[in-house]
Design brief:
The protein has four helices and four strands; from the N terminus they run E-H-E-H-E-H-E-H. By secondary structure, it is an alpha/beta fold. Helix 1 runs parallel beside helix 2.
């Protein structure tokens, strides 16, 4: 089996209220040749049960758990250490990405032979009722 085109690394800590939205946006990517690396940084909330639910139905998910909280940089370093993709993308557990997130950045990197691509960000407040 060949390596995935993109490894998407997700740092997870105390995001149980946003995590399903994040994971749903990742498993629905138009680029199917991806791996989704979830690193639980010893989150004290219910994030792990949500992660385990998704790992049962999504074979592209790789799950790693830190026994002690290590910080965002070390969480990302853990993910990088196991990533098999041609490119690596980073998403936080409370982020939501568009369906073409991985495809767009991958195609730009390929077309321009770039080492790094950066997408735009929009901020949404889902708890705001306006």
């Amino acid at each position: 089996m060949s390596s995935p085109k993109v490894s998407i690394c997700v740092a997870i800590y105390n995001v149980e209220n946003e995590l399903r939205r994040c994971l749903d946006s990742l498993v629905c990517q138009t680029l199917k040749d991806i791996e989704i690396i979830l690193v639980n940084d010893a989150s004290p909330d219910n994030s792990e049960s949500i992660i385990l639910e998704y790992t049962k139905r999504e074979p592209r998910i790789v799950y790693v758990k830190h026994e002690k909280n290590k910080s965002l940089p070390q969480t990302r370093e853990t993910a990088i250490g196991i990533a098999k993709g041609e490119y690596i993308g980073f998403v936080d557990g409370d982020d939501e990405v568009t369906p073409d997130y991985a495809m767009t950045l991958y195609q730009i990197a390929q077309a321009t032979q770039a080492d790094i691509t950066i997408g735009q960000m929009r901020i949404h407040n889902y708890s705001d009722n306006t």
